[in-house]
Amino acid sequence: MQAKTSRRGEQTRERILDAAEQVFAEKDYSAARLEDVAQAVGIKRASIVYYYAGKQELYDAVEERIFTAMSSHTQGTQRPGENAINQLLDLLDGWLDFLVARPTAARILLRTSSNSYSDSRAPIRNSAGALTAWEEIIRRGQASGEFAEASPMHLLHLLGAGFIYYTATAQLLGDERNYDPANPVELEAFRTLMHRSAKALLTP
Amino acid sequence: MQAKTSRRGEQTRERILDAAEQVFAEKDYSAARLEDVAQAVGIKRASIVYYYAGKQELYDAVEERIFTAMSSHTQGTQRPGENAINQLLDLLDGWLDFLVARPTAARILLRTSSNSYSDSRAPIRNSAGALTAWEEIIRRGQASGEFAEASPMHLLHLLGAGFIYYTATAQLLGDERNYDPANPVELEAFRTLMHRSAKALLTP
Question: What domains, with CATH codes, occur in chain A?
Fold first, then answer.
């Protein structure tokens, strides 16, 4: 009975996070309301508070879930024996494909990057795993001489910000410039450019 | 007397926009209040409404002023007789230097890019001049064969998003990764990478 209850609780928690990801992707933090999330799930506001003490805790959980899912996704694409540039391209491809398949996540990452919604330390904690994975490949490539010296964060801005913008702003450019980021032709064209930039930035 | 009054009105308007840019850079759209702006200027909320009908109008005016200032700044750096790659690097440098000198603008551009605050068409209208300036150089370079074929918007994501992130997220990466984007050594290192990426992306 206990197991059944907690399984049901886990399902409710997931449904809350699904709904919250939609709400936080659509509205800014201050405009998003727990009532909106409760209504989308079909439960009462008080039931959310049973799982998450408040909006900040819920937002942080949504963000954490996005980074965890992104990390699981890219771990599946990593090839341990590869040279550093191919590992880096695999990681970039994994992140890009993850965001294209989950546009709400791209929007929320952009929101996190402007960090306007709170003084919470959660964004730094939640993003640390992704930043560390990135840095480890760069440092390894630099140590072996395969990569040129450069700040891993500068490199991340020039490559990582690009795929977040590719995904999150595709419909915000105006009618004559908008595109579908999931269109395979569009996506492969962008990927080719991203790879070209990565190789140019990292080759000594 | 009329001229004096309107000059004073113009000064008040500028002070309102200055204060609003600070407020909108710090808080998300829904959290920002006209009262905060009024208090910073030292006037009553009703006095703001005399200039701007509401928060949306004020936000749009702040955004428009940023794009206008950015455009004026880069027009001063453009060299009409230059080849396309140098014109493009001049434009990128101008944008980068503008944002480094005005961090509130970088934060607001990031906010605009996630467009979570409204259904307003203002962001598309306000950014159109910058996007057009970018496209014109790319198209000219592509027409002459100096540049490889590629989507101007894809190129903008890989170069423009980079300098927005370089400026806006420098203090959001965690203590051991944070940096000062205005530090000349840091800035020149990033600029060198940005140029390298631009050349690699655009050279046929």
Answer: 61-202 (1.10.357.10)
